[in-house]
Amino acid sequence: MSTDCPILIWMLSLNREYTQEEYDACHKVVDECVEHIKVPYDPPNPETFRQVMTNMLPLLMMRHRRIPRAKWRDCVTPHGKHWIEQTPDDMPPEKFLHSMIGYHLAHETSLCGMAMTQGIQRKVVNIGLGIKQVAVEPRGVTVKAYSESMAHKLTPTEQKLIAPELGDEVVLRRLCILLALKSAYIKAIGQPAGFDWARLEFDIPEQMARGDGLPLQGWEFRIFRSSLGVARRDLLVEEHYQCVCAFFRGTKESTFVWHESAKELESWVQFINIDQMIKVIPKLTA
């Protein structure tokens, strides 16, 4: 993997239910420190809590780098791609040019994530994060029914990869990998919600990515899994997610990098939970 524009990912596990006080404290931080987003104040709605927690991740990342909130600003391209620009102050021009931090936020169910990289602005914004829970929607339907409902997002080649005879477990896992790949790429190029997912094809056995039938060149796709233990009232539930980070490196070929073990991830993926985020709230606004 290239050392140019190193990729780091923060994953926040919503591993338990939140209190009113925690919701208020987090919502206040986002309201005061994240000017470009307004999350509705609706404590009973867990989706607003997901949005709040996800939008706290850039604050946490910059705090981790010991850069005060007053020393950086959030910028956005016409396509909605975000990057963080630090105050040039005493930075030499060349260092300032390579100090831009491109990032992308995503969340699903109990997992919030941020993919980020640092370098020159036109490179770092080409990053996307896809998160797909390995579960059927709506809850209770069969894997066959769920995969059929997603068929319009897949090409004929991809549909062969999730043939029913492969068994429910394989079909669901492969389907979620395909959906996470497509989501990550669509977000990386800044496409709107109505983008036709069937225009993209990920032929995983051949390690090939195509758009409108043509090879997608220069992309790096990092594919990994996240497993969480989540407390739901008196039960501890295990949830599994397929995650993909897509980043345009401009190389001749596109590459697929698979990370299976926790050890492989620990150098570039950081996992935290609600308690850890709540603990640092007083420092995020400093």
From TrEMBL:
Domain of life where this protein originates: Eukaryota
Thylakoid found in the keyword field: no
One annotated GO biological process: lysine biosynthetic process via aminoadipic acid
Gene3D superfamilies listed in its UniProt record: 4'-phosphopantetheinyl transferase domain (3.90.470.20)
EC number(s) reported in the record: 2.7.8.7
Alphabetized UniProt keyword annotations: Transferase
InterPro entries linked: 4-PPantetheinyl_Trfase_dom_sf, P-Pant_transferase_sf
Major enzyme class: transferase
Stored SUPFAM superfamilies: 4'-phosphopantetheinyl transferase
One MF annotation (Gene Ontology) recorded for this entry: magnesium ion binding
Keyword Transferase listed: yes
Cellular compartments per GO CC: cytosol
Residue runs in coiled coils: none
PANTHER family the record matches: L-AMINOADIPATE-SEMIALDEHYDE DEHYDROGENASE-PHOSPHOPANTETHEINYL TRANSFERASE, PHOSPHOPANTETHEINE TRANSFERASE
Name this polypeptide is given: holo-[acyl-carrier-protein] synthase
Organism annotation: Favolaschia claudopus
